């Protein structure tokens, strides 16, 4: 067995080196190796940049957008915190309103989170410096004793693990202060230094008066800026929780909770536990189409670059076919002296896969450093793709998938010529050689 293994490796190495009579086949194999290296390197660079852009958009857009909003009661808090990927939850209100400043008017989404009443999942208690036993005991005992559930901790802007809880403003109840995003402030020329006021008008829970149906309206003072990017047609504005509840005239019995997920993209795994049990909405209703477009662009770019690998794999098929065709006499002799079909199959699979192995290693050696230094390279050539620094997110899982995909495609293209060589009839080839 050891002799056969050594013989397989020895013969495969001789065929990989080629001969002077097979220069064209060697050239095709070299082109296949370079093609795979370029394809793997390009896939690593593009997937890292696209992943970084997606993560930046997710951080800039979904930080201030509620991941999941559930209509529930306080007794439901322990169950909601036990759902997978739910980090924390807090009381939350949201409604549509019209924002008027001077003669300008636009539709906005008015929201507020009770940052002083944050419920923490026992699974993530350590994130806030608490023991899971303490959090679990506190929450469940409060419910069993019939006492109102209280917040475990005050909401931080960033927890110990670096999780961003969005824009949190210390608005005083009754002050009717408001935070607007930068684009809205610039569009309507609102001066924060002068304490400009805007009027919010809402038809939600409007009342009938002798003059007919009268909408709710009130002046709010703009005192803060929301840092996140808002891509919706109704920009988000943030106020104090108590002020917004009073403004929208919400029923005290209708309570809503905002669930903070460890990753917004796992929302499907969370809402599957809410179906048919709670009324809920999630971030996909507002930004689902936008992130679908981003994901589709990422997939499209990857598929286009996969064509490079596919063409290189076809080159492997061509070069190996030429090698097998030119060495039928040698194959017949090898089988005559006792080399088995399995050993011959292994020889030519090694010959064909050598281009894939070497190309993948070259692609890794080129792609990873290029991805990590993409910003410096673009700056050197004076190219600017995005504002600020180019986001790079090297994902080991994606790199493994790229390399494995390359090997699988190459193996499929290698198998037929190798199988043909192993099935060759030595008598027929010796007679005609």
Q: How is the secondary structure organized here?
A:
Layout: H1 2-17, H2 23-62, E1 68-71, H3 77-81, E2 86-101, E3 104-113, E4 119-120, H4 132-144, E5 177-181, H5 182-187, E6 197-209, E7 212-226, E8 236-239, H6 241-248, E9 256-261, H7 267-271, E10 279-282, H8 284-326, H9 328-336, H10 341-372, H11 374-380, H12 396-422, H13 426-432
Parallel strand pairs: 3-8, 5-7
Antiparallel strand pairs: 1-9, 1-10, 2-3, 2-4, 2-6, 2-9, 5-8, 6-7
Description:
The protein is elongated, with a radius of gyration of 32 Å. Strands 2-3-8-5-7-6 form a 6-stranded mixed barrel. The protein starts with a helix and ends with a helix. The longest helix has 43 residues. A hairpin with a 2-residue loop joins strand 2 and strand 3. By secondary structure, the protein is an alpha+beta fold.
């Amino acid at each position: 067995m050891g002799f056969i293994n050594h013989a397989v490796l020895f013969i495969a190495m001789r065929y990989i080196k080629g001969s002077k009579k097979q220069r064209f086949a060697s050239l095709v194999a070299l082109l296949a190796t370079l093609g795979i290296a370029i394809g793997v390197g390009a896939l690593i660079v593009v997937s890292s940049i696209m992943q970084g852009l997606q993560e930046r958009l997710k951080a800039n857009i979904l930080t201030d957008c509620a991941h999941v909003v559930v209509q529930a009661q306080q007794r439901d808090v322990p169950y909601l915190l036990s759902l997978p990927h739910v980090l924390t939850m807090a009381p939350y209100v949201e409604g549509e309103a019209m924002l008027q400043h001077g003669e300008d008017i636009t539709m906005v989404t008015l929201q507020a989170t009770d940052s002083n009443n944050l419920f923490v999942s026992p699974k993530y208690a350590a994130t806030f410096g608490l023991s899971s036993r303490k959090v679990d005991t506190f929450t469940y005992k409060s419910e069993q004793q019939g006492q109102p559930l209280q917040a475990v901790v005050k909401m931080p802007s960033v927890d110990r693990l670096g999780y961003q809880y969005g824009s949190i403003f210390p608005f005083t109840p009754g002050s009717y202060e408001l935070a607007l995003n930068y684009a809205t402030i610039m569009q309507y020329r609102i001066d924060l230094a002068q304490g400009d006021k805007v009027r919010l008008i809402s038809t939600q829970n409007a009342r009938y008066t002798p003059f007919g149906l009268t909408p709710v309206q009130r002046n709010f003072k703009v005192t803060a800026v929301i840092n996140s990017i808002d891509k919706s047609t109704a920009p988000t504005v943030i106020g104090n929780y108590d002020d917004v509840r009073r403004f929208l005239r919400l029923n005290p019995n209708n309570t809503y909770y905002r669930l903070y997920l460890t990753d917004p993209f796992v929302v499907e795994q969370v809402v599957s536990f809410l179906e048919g049990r709670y009324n809920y909405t999630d971030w996909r209703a507002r930004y689902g189409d936008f992130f679908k477009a981003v994901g589709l662009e990422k997939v499209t770019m990857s598929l286009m670059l996969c064509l490079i690998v596919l063409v290189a794999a076809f080159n492997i098929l061509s070069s190996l076919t030429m090698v097998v065709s030119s060495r039928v006499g040698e194959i017949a002799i090898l089988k005559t002296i006792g080399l088995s079909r399995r050993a011959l199959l292994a020889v030519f699979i090694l010959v064909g896969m050598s281009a894939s192995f070497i190309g993948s290693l070259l692609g890794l050696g080129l792609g990873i450093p290029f991805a990590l230094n993409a910003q410096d390279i673009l700056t050197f050539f004076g190219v600017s793709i995005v504002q600020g620094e180019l986001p790079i997110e090297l994902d080991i899982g994606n790199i493994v998938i790229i390399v494995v995909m390359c090997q699988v495609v190459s193996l499929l293209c290698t198998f037929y010529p190798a199988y043909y060589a192993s099935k060759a009839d030595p008598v027929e080839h010796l007679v005609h050689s």
